[in-house]
Write a structure and sequence with these properties.
The protein has 662 residues and is of the alpha+beta class. 43% of the residues lie in helices and 21% in strands. The chain has 14 helices and 22 strands.
């Protein structure tokens, strides 16, 4: 049984699929718009943060540079004694303590009473007090340092590379000092302790970080983002992880990374460029917002994990999907309820249709509230019920008439077939003649006939085919059959018998029907066959015995004048013909239903096949039963046409003369 599906459910699913599609399109558009908005907001936020951080650091750097130059100018005025230099440094550190310390170093033996090394250093201690020291000595030989030699050679101020002093890491801005004659006599500078720079950078990050931001996981789990500074060689000089300062480099991030974008980002940062680019940091993808700090040759970078944007988008997507799912459930519940209610009349109509299908044509139909398409369907169904009732009544009357007609046709068939000889052998007491025939009408009744009887030791036999099929042909066949019996009782000559039958058949033949007819008169004593043809198929003659007890296998068509069919020309002069038969000779008569039998492709049985079947049946057979010729021929033609329907009446008659009984 075929599985049924509720129309309401199918309609609900279609609506649900449509709504789901629209929701997903809206969701996708909302998600894309939100992503672009959040991406733009994130980029704008961190670009602004990069600008603020770089400005603060540049301001601090610039302030230290100005302090160093002020110290150099102050020292140049007070170089008359070591005490005057130290006093100048003490005044400067107390007035401008934004640097971690100020120093002034001089050429060897510049102050004869101070020895070879003289470097005054003023700084602020952790407790807030100020300290002034002379740190130059053989142990602290500043004369051999790179920064001192470079300053004396370049004669311009610059930032040194990071260095370690008293277990702390510093960067200094150094400025050469000249005497009144313009000779380079020493170097002044201001110190920046990298520990304080890291603290300042961390404080700036915390000030920029908004409250409630979800922290990232990993090495720096306490940060959502962070900043670092590298010098021109890529070495970290400021980093949240102080263990990396002066030990790790930016290149370490990308040493095992084969992404060209990451390598390009590192190159751009070391070349003092500004931009936004991806970078793999501690095996995590991040976006790096970088910009140069030009004066010291550093590069500032703000590292933002990708998840800073991805995580909110995942939360947003989950929220949208959850809302979509809840919306779909709500739509499904509402649609299912409303559609089920709207389709209840259809369900009632379905039950009524089932009752009608079972034969209850008076099944009640539901009453509908609204005059809509379903109401029109209900009205159409009511009209169909009325039509079905009338149709069934008409069909019953027609069926009764048809049954009566079929009964009458069956009766007519029995009557017609009773007129045709149907007892074989017809003359069991005689050995000189064998006869067998069959008639198969294409419809209930047909227009073919055959008949025979013996009078005065003469066998009178005939075969005929009335034009057309069915009842008209059957009526005309009855007329011909009656005329054959009536005329042959008193007339012996075959041509005269045919003429009388033709004249009678033609009289009053307003339907212009005709009948092909063959009449034979066989002298049972001598074997002389006299015959007259009226447009019928020429019979086959199967040869006489070729040896005692054997029948010859040669089959040939009987030569005769075709003449015209009965009913065509009243008064037509028919001529008789004759042929002597040898004992054992067989006559095979048939109608055109045999030759015209055709396959579904239109290929006809034809005379050659008839001849071949007769010869194969007769060849080599001893005392062959005459019925086998008709039955074999019937089997062959049935097998030949296959599934093709019978188009015409089929009649066959076999007559064999065995010789006189005397």
């Amino acid at each position: 049984m075929k599985k049924t599906h509720s129309f309401a459910n199918r309609l609900t699913l279609k609506v649900l699929r449509t709504v789901l599609l629209l929701m997903f399109v809206t969701l996708a558009m909302t998600f894309i718009a939100a992503y672009r908005s959040m991406r733009g907001e994130t980029v704008g936020r961190y670009l602004g943060m990069r600008s603020v951080v770089s400005e603060k650091i540049n301001l601090e750097i610039k302030t230290i540079e100005i302090g160093a130059r002020n110290v150099a100018a102050e020292v140049a005025v007070h170089m008359e004694s070591p005490e005057a230099v130290m006093s100048a440094l003490d005044r400067e550190i107390r007035l401008n303590d934004f640097a971690d310390g100020y120093f002034a170093a001089f050429e060897p033996n510049y102050f004869t009473n101070a020895g070879k090394w003289f470097e005054a250093y003023a700084y602020k201690k952790a407790d807030g007090s100020y300290r002034l020291e002379q740190v130059g000595s053989a142990q602290h030989d500043y004369l051999s340092t790179d920064w001192y030699q470079r300053a004396m050679q370049q004669k311009v101020g610059f930032w040194t590379d990071p260095y370690v002093y008293n277990n702390a890491v510093y960067c200094s801005f150094v400025q050469p000092v000249a005497d009144a004659e313009g000779r380079m006599v020493g170097v002044c500078g201001a110190d920046l302790m990298l520990k304080n720079l890291i603290k300042d950078l961390h404080d700036i990050d915390n000030d920029s970080r908004s409250e409630g931001t979800q922290n990232i996981t990993g090495r720096y789990s306490h940060l959502d983002f962070y900043s670092f500074i590298v010098n021109r060689s890529g070495t970290f000089i400021a980093h949240p992880d102080e263990q990396r300062v002066l030990k790790d480099s930016l290149q370490d991030y990308t040493a095992d990374v084969f992404y060209s974008d990451c390598q390009r980002t590192v190159r751009d940062m070391l070349q003092m460029k500004s931009g936004i680019a991806p970078l793999v940091v501690d095996d995590k993808w991040t976006d790096v917002y970088y910009t140069p700090i030009v004066s010291p040759g550093w590069s500032l970078a703000i590292v933002v994990p990708k998840r800073a944007l991805v995580t909110p988008m995942i939360i947003l997507l989950f929220s949208l999907l959850s809302a979509t799912g809840l919306g779909q459930i709500l739509v499904w519940i509402i649609c299912r309820r409303n559609i089920r209610k709207a389709t209840e009349p259809l369900v009632a109509l379905t039950h009524s249709a089932d009752e009608v299908a079972k034969g209850n044509f008076e099944a009640p139909l539901p009453d509908l509230e609204y005059h809509d398409e379903i109401c029109r369907l209900r009205d159409s169904f009511a009209t169909m019920q009325q039509s079905l009732v009338k149709y069934i009544q008409d069909l019953e009357a027609t069926t009764a008439k048809k049954a009566a007609m079929e009964s009458e046709m069956k009766t007519a068939r029995r009557i017609q077939m009773s007129m045709i000889p149907n007892r074989f052998p017809p003359f069991p007491q005689r050995t000189d003649i064998d006869i067998f025939g069959s008639l198969t009408p294409a419809k209930e009744v047909g227009g073919d006939l055959f008949d025979y009887f013996i009078r005065d030791e003469h066998l009178y036999f005939c075969i005929g085919d009335v034009s057309g099929k069915g009842v008209p042909a059957a009526l005309m066949m009855t007329v011909v059959h009656y005329l054959f019996r009536s005329v042959t009782i008193n007339v012996e000559q075959p041509e005269r018998i045919v003429e009388i039958i033709n004249d009678c058949f033609s009289s009053g033949n307003k339907t212009m029907m005709f009948c092909t007819f063959f009449l034979g008169v066989l002298d049972l004593k001598t074997g002389l066959l006299q015959y007259c043809n009226a447009g019928h198929e020429s019979p086959f003659v199967v040869g006489a015995p070729s040896a005692p007890g054997h029948v010859g296998s040669e089959a040939r068509r009987l030569k005769m004048e075709p003449n015209v069919a009965l009913g065509v020309d009243r008064g037509f002069p028919f001529a008789a013909e004759e042929i002597p038969l040898k004992p054992g000779t067989l006559l095979f008569l048939y109608t055109d239903g045999l030759t015209d039998a055709a396959t579904t492709s239109g290929e006809r049985f034809e005379h050659e096949r008839i001849k071949a079947v007769l010869q194969q049946t007769a060849e080599g057979q001893r005392d062959k039963d005459i019925a086998s010729y008709v039955r074999t021929m019937d089997d062959e033609v049935t097998a030949y046409v296959g599934d093709a329907p019978q188009a015409d009446d089929l009649t066959m008659l076999a007559v064999r003369w065995n010789g006189s009984e005397e």
